[in-house]
Amino acid sequence: MTASPRISIVEDDGPTRTLLVEVIQGAPGLTLVSQHGSTEQALSTLPAERPDVVLMDINLPNINGVECVRRLKPLLPDTQFLMLTVYEDHEHILAALTAGATGYLLKGTRREELLGAIDQIVTGGSPMSSAIARKVVQSFARPEAAPRNELEALSLREQAVLELLTQGFLYKEISERLGVSVPTVNTYIRRIYEKLQVRSRSEAIAKYFRQAI
Predict the structure, then answer these.
(1) What's 6-139's CATH class?
(2) β-bridge pairing 53-56 and 6-10
(3) How far apart, in whole angstroms, are the C-alpha atoms of residue 164 and residue 143?
(4) Residue 10 parent element (H or E)
């Protein structure tokens, strides 16, 4: 990281983006590199800008913020992605962290907390809103982790679907990747849930991580 961390913002909501710009520009020791209102713009320009930290929204049109991080992280391995979003469910949290995000904050975080989170992420930390941190702990601390052979019981195609789920892909995107219909993807996912004895995507992802480690 540079002495003066270079920050980029990816946020489609104009007023929110303006507020974030004002926070970064008003903070001593931070440099605003760029602001982007769409994933497409971010994907085309961030690899060349090479910011130290990217503040990333999730609910972006066309390509969501999780997928944006997943595509950018291999191109920007030294860049830290800090999600700044309204989503606080297990599914979005795990998908973002799996995609390569280093921190996860909820929108509405106070200015001081946001700047503190940027400082943490620059110095090697993984800042999270307290509510988010609790949910991450809960996801990995549920009792009676299933035996490893539950994953081994999945067919190769089911394993492929589960791995794409952990990377944050939507059902339609999975169908396009694997060349099958969305109903077929739904069938695979239903079988995955049955074999892993889970009831939701977030539970399947959490169990995947517990057994894969």
Answers:
(1) alpha beta
(2) parallel
(3) 25
(4) strand 6-10
Q: CA 176 to CA 93: how far, in whole Å?
A: 24
Give the C-alpha separation, 150 to 93, whole Å: 24
Q: Give me the chain's average pLDDT, please.
A: 86
Asked if 188 contacts 181 with a C-beta cutoff of 8 angstroms, the reply is: no
**CATH number attached to the domain at 149-212:** 1.10.10.10
The residue ranges of every structural domain in the chain are 6-139, 149-212
- Tell me the per-residue pLDDT of 63-94, one tens digit each, with 9 for 90 and over: 999 999 999 999 999 999 999 999 887 778 88
Residues in CB range of 75: below 8 A, 6 or more apart: 47
Q: Which of 131, 137, 157, 168 is nearest to 39 (CA)?
A: 168
Each residue's pLDDT expressed in tens, for the chain with a length of 213 residues: 446 999 999 999 999 999 999 999 999 999 999 999 999 999 999 999 999 999 999 999 889 999 999 999 999 999 999 999 998 877 788 888 888 898 899 898 899 999 999 998 998 888 888 777 776 666 655 544 444 567 888 888 998 898 888 877 888 889 998 999 988 998 998 889 888 888 877 778 877 777 654
Task: Say yes or no: do domains 6-139 and 149-212 share a fold.
Answer: no
161: left (phi over 0), alpha (psi -120 to 50) or beta: alpha
Bridge partner list, 56: 10, 83
DSSP at 143: S
